[in-house]
C-alpha cells in the first residue's frame, strides 16, 4: 500500500570500491548519494556516467538533492565536475566538517591532476568555489525538509571527521545510506550510531571489509608499533602513505604516545602543511571527535604533537632512520609517490599501507607484492619491506551485521566492496535476518516493490467509535469498519467512515438490525434501566422501552406481552448482544 | 491538554503541560531576586566587611548599608515548590536555554523525578560552565552562621527593603554532586531533531537568543502546541530564530517577551561602546559584571576594536576576562560553529575560528584568568577593561572589583544584565565610581510579535502569562499582547491549570498487521481517480499499541453492504435451502415481512429494500444474516 516505489542504481561503487555515486528514487523524488571519483582510472571512467541519469535533460530538473557522506575523494571527487561542468544547481547536503574539508581536498586533487600530471581539461578552482556555494551544511540528527515530501537526516558514521550516514525519507519509505562507517570507536572518533527510531525500508551499506572479522584492534596496533620500532632501530626509513585527514590522526596519536612512552627521539615527519591544516579542522570541529577528546580539549589539544613535526625540505634524503607520514594514501601521486620512488629499492626500508587501496593504483600493486613497478615511465625494483595493516575505519562483517540487526531494514543493498566479498556476506545476512540482499553492478537498477506500509493514519473519531463497539476491557479486538480511499493522482491514502465512503460512491449502506424476543416472568423497567446504565450511563428511557448507545441497542416492550422484551440491535453491536441479553434474562426471570 | 503556568516571572518561564499520556515540564525556574537581600561578597573592603549588625534586630548577620537591610551570608534562591509540582509524575523536562539549565538540578535531584531531560548540545555545554561557576562562587563564600530567624514575618517585613516573596520558600544553591547527577540525565538534541516520549513528539527549534537556545514544537495524540521562550531576531553571534515550524500551529504558549521594549540592543550596545571609549580615553577602568557566556563573546571583539581604532586609547590596554571558566567558555565558543550565525559559520570554511578570541589571546590583548588571585595579581595593569562575574554583584569577583575601583570617578561600571539591573547596584550607590545601566535585551518585543510574528504564526489559540494581558507600562497599549482575528487568547494565571480545547480533527498512526496488509486491495472504477478498500477488521488498542488486525474469528466483524433487497429473491433463496417462507405486506410504504415458521424467524424489509431486520433466536441468526448479505454487495465492490 505504500505506493512510492524505490529504485536504486549505482553509477559507481556497484560491486566496486571507488567513485561512489548512487542514485536513489523514492516515488517521484530523486536523490544522488555521493559523487566520487575513481582513483584507479585516469580517463573519463574516473567520473560517474552522469548522462545515465537524465539523458540529455538537465540534472537540476531531475535531481531533488545531492548528498555527500564524507570528504574522501572517492565520495566527493566528481562533485565540481557534476555541478559545474555537467551542470547542477540544486541543493548539495553534507555535514559541517565535510563542507569545510571537501574544497581543500578537491583543490589538492585538482593540483595533482593539473600541475603534476599536466591535465588541461579539468575542473578549476573557480568551479570548486561555485560548487561549494551550493553546499548546505547539516547537523547530526536534524530533520532537513528538502521539500514538502522529501526529508533527510544525518547520523554519526565514525569513518573520518564529519562522516555521516544519511536517511532519505519520502512518506513511509526510507533509505539509509551508510557512506563509509566504523562500528568501533577509536582514538579520535566515536563509533557509528543511528538513533533507535531508524527503520529503513532499504539499507545501503558499504562492504569494504565484508569478509573480514578484524583481529582485535589492540593487537593490530601493537603489531604496527613493533614493526615501526624494529625498523627504525635497525636504521631503516618507514613511509606510511596516508590521507591528510582521518587515519593519519589516528596513527599519529598512536605513534606519538609510543614515542613518549619509549622515550624515542628518531624523527617523525608529516607532509608539510597538511598536519597544521588538518589540526585546524579538528580544533574547529572538536564536537565531532570522541568523548575523550571532547572532554579534555580545553586543557590539552590531542592534535598538538610533540614528536611529530612537519617535514623539512629534503628530509627524505637525510641519512639515518625516520618515519614519514606522507600524502596521498594510495601512492597515486604527490609526495608519497615521490618519496616512495626514492626509498623503494632499499631493503632496509619499509612501507606500511594502513588503508585500502583502489585497484589500479600503485598502492594496490605494492600491496599485491609486485616487485617491479613502473612509475611515471620508469621501472623501479621494489625491495623494501611491505606491510599492509588495515587501519581504515570501515565496518567489518561483524559491524555490518550489527547495523542490520539494529535498524531492521526490509531490504539490504551492498555497495563499495568487491563482488566475491559481498556475495559471501549476502549469504550470511539472508540466512541470519531473512531479508533480501541486493548487490547491483554499476548501471544495474534495483527496483524495490512498494512494500506494504506498516502504518496508516486513522482519525481519533473512528478509533473511539471502534473501541466503543468492543465490550471487553482489554480492547484487543474492537470491531473496526471503515474505508481506505486512495487518491490515484497523489497516491495519498485516507481512512474514512463507511458512511462517508458510501456517500462518495453514491451508494447507500444497507442497514441490518437484529432482534430477539426475551421471555421472562415479570419485567420491572426501572430495574432494567438501572442495570443498563452500567453499560451506557447516557441511555434514554422512552415510553416504549430503553434506548442504549444512541439507539444502537434497544430494549422494547412487546405489545400485549407484559413479560416479554424485544431486544433490537444494530449489526455492529453484535458483540454486546450476549452480554446485555444475559443481564436482561437475569432480571426478567427473577421471581 | 492542560497547561499550568508555574512562574511568577514571565521572563523565566516554568509551566506544566499535561496530556492524558504524558506530563512535560516546560523549563525550570530559578529566581535570583532573593540575592538582592544579601550583602555583596568581597575579599577585602573595610566598607563592607566592617558593617555592624542592625542593633534593634539583634541578629549578628543582619546589616544596614546605604539605608537598606542586607543579610551577611550565602545568598539564597527561589524556585517553584517541587513537592506541589509532583516531580515524580513528570515524564520529561524541556530545557530551552542555559538560564533554565542552571535551575534544572533543583527540579531533578531529591525530588522523586525519574524522567528524561532534553536540551540542545550547546545548552548543555555552556550551561554546565555557568553552573560550575555558580558552584565555585558559592564554595568561595565564608561559612557565615546565618539562620532563618530573620525570615520571620515580624522581622523581615520591618526592613526598609522587605522581600516581596516569602523568604521561607527560599533555599540554598545545590552542590556540585547534584549538578553532576542532574546533567547526566540530559539527552542532548540537535535543532529539528524529533524525539518521541510516550507517543508525543518533541522538536527543538532554533530560538536565536543564545547559542543552542530553543523553542519547542510538541505534537501529542490529539493536539499540538508550540512553546516560544527567549527568542530573538536581532543579529548577534547566534543564528536568528526560526518560526516556520510553528506556522498555523493549533496552540502557542508565548513567554519571555522583552522587558526593555524602548531600548533596542543596537542602541544600547552603541551607548555602551561610547561610554567605554570615553572612560578609556580618560584613563579610567571599565568593569563589566557579566556572565561568562553569551553576549560577552561579541563584546570582547567589539571592545578590542575600539582600543585598536580610537586615538587617545593606548593600544596595549588589556582586556581581562576573569572567571573560573573563562578559558573553557572561549574554547567552547569556537567549536560550536554549527550553532552560530551564518556569518560566523562562513569563517570555519576558511578555516578560521568563528571568534577572534584566540588571536586576541595570542597577541596578549585579551588576558584570561580564573580568579583575581595568583597569576592575575602579578600582571594586573590599569587602565583596563575587565569582564567578570557575577551580574548580581553578590557573588564572584565583580563586587570586589567595584570596591577596588570605587574611589575614582574616572572608572566606570557598566551593567548589561537584563535580570539584574540597577537594583543590584544599591549597596554601591554612594561610591565615586560611575555606574551605567545598559541592559542588552535581544528578546522579541511586543511590537515584533503583535505586528509580525503572531500574524505569521497565526495560532488558533494563543496562551500567555497574565502579565502580557495588561500594558507593561501605563498608557502604553502597544506593550501588551494584541492578537485578534485569527484565533483566541487564553490567559495563564500563576498556578492555575487551564484546559486547552482541541480545535482540529486529529489522526493517529495505526499499525497494519502484515497478514491483513496482504489481503488489502484497492478497488475502483478505472475512470475514477479514487480507489477504495473496505476494511471490516479488528482494532487492538491493548497496551497502547494501536494495530489493525485480521478479524479474530469468522464474522466477528461483518463488512458493510450496499444495495436493495427484493423480498421475492429472499423467499426463493430460502426455498433453495428448503425453508418455506411466507411473504406479506404490512403497510403502505412497501414494508414486507417474511415469516419462516420452521426457524421461528421473521425478516422485515423496509425503506424500499434498504433496511433489513432479522428477528430470530441466536442459533438461527447467522444463517439468515449470511443469506441476506449474500444478495447484497459489499461496500466498495465494483
Automatic annotation (TrEMBL), chain A:
Superkingdom per UniProt: Eukaryota
Cellular location(s): Cytoplasm; Nucleus
Recorded family membership: Belongs to the metallo-beta-lactamase superfamily. RNA-metabolizing metallo-beta-lactamase-like family. INTS11 subfamily.
Names of the cofactor(s): Zn(2+)
GO molecular function, one term: RNA endonuclease activity
Keyword set includes Cytoplasm: yes
Protein name (Swiss-Prot/TrEMBL): Integrator complex subunit 11
SMART domains reported for this sequence: Beta-Casp, Lactamase_B
Coiled coil: none
Record keywords: Cytoplasm, Hydrolase, Metal-binding, Nucleus, Zinc
Domain (Beta-Casp) ranges: 248-366
GO biological process: snRNA processing
Chief place where the protein resides: cytoplasm
Any single GO CC term annotated in Swiss-Prot or TrEMBL for this entry: cytoplasm
Residue span(s) of domain Metallo-beta-lactamase: 18-236
Gene3D superfamilies for the chain: 3.40.50.10890, Ribonuclease Z/Hydroxyacylglutathione hydrolase-like
Automatic annotation (TrEMBL), chain B:
InterPro entries: Beta_Casp, Integrator_9su, Metallo-B-lactamas, RibonucZ/Hydroxyglut_hydro
Domain Beta-Casp: from-to ranges: 296-422
Pfam family, one: Beta-Casp
Gene Ontology biological process: snRNA 3'-end processing
UniProt KW Ion transport keyword: no
Protein location: Cytoplasm; Nucleus
SMART domains: Beta-Casp (SM01027)
GO CC, alphabetical: cytoplasm; integrator complex
Key words, A-Z: Cytoplasm, Nucleus
Main location: cytoplasm
Domain of life according to the entry: Eukaryota
Family under the similarity heading: Belongs to the metallo-beta-lactamase superfamily. RNA-metabolizing metallo-beta-lactamase-like family. INTS9 subfamily.
PANTHER family hit by this protein: INTEGRATOR COMPLEX SUBUNIT 9
Entry protein name: Beta-Casp domain-containing protein
Organism for this UniProt entry: Caenorhabditis auriculariae
